[in-house]
Amino acid sequence: MTDIPQPQPPGTPVALPFPTEGTLPERMGMEVLEIGPQRTVGRMPVAGNTQPYGLLHGGASAALAETVASVAAAAHAGADRIAVGVDLNATHHRAVREGWVTAVATPLSLGRSVASYEVVVQDDEGRRVCTARLTCALRDRPPGA
């Protein structure tokens, strides 16, 4: 496991401290822009992540929210531990048809065994698209992981 990447200029994707090849975030075009236990930011294109009506799929917003909050929880947990999502809820506020959505995860509670984050997903105009909450269990890293 490598160290958590240092902040980059705004809008510059950062390398994640774990493999992402072949994962859902890679397939959905997600980019993580900032990583930290107090704030993690990621984004994803609307194109390719829509429902049949051309609107951003609610499950895509939920996947983005879970991704950024899990990365934040992993940063809180530390290199010798892992974060595993155990509860996710999301409320969808408005439709998006184009552009990008950006998610910002901030902590609600950071403990030794559990971390909970609020995630606000916004469109390119800064309008709230979705509000989510993720709770992660923090566990010791299994051998070989």
Describe the structure.
The structure is a single chain. This protein has a single domain, classed as Roll (Thiol Ester Dehydrase, Chain A), CATH 3.10.129. The model is unreliable at 1-7 (pLDDT under 50). It has helices at residues 24-27, 58-77; strands at 31-34, 40-45, 81-92, 100-110, 114-122, 128-140. With 145 residues, the protein is of the alpha+beta class. It is built from 2 helices and 6 strands; from the N terminus they run αββαββββ.
The CATH topology comes to: Thiol Ester Dehydrase, Chain A
Tell me, rounded to a whole number, the average pLDDT.
91
Q: Uncertain segments of ≥5 residues (pLDDT<50)?
A: 1-7
Helicity level: 10-25%
Report the radius of gyration as a whole number of Å. Answer: 15 Å
Question: What is the strand arrangement across the widest sheet?
Answer: 1-2-4-5-6-3
**CATH superfamily grouping:** Hotdog Thioesterase
Strand percentage lies at 35-45%
User: What is the annotated CATH architecture?
Assistant: Roll
- Beta-strand segment tally: 6
The best one-word shape is: globular
What is the number of independent domains? 1
